[in-house]
Amino acid sequence: MNRMLAISLLVLASLAGCMQPKAPEVAAPPNLGQPPAAQEPSRNPNEAALVNPGFEEWNGKSPVGWKTELPDSIEPSRTTVKSGTASLSTIPPYYYNQVSQDVFYGKPLAGKTITFYADTYAAGSEPNLIIQIGGESIYGEKHPGDKQWRRLQVVYEAPKDSDQTAFTITLGHGGSPSSPAYFDNARVEISDTPKASGTELK
Question: What pLDDT is attached to residue 102?
Answer without folding.
Answer: 98
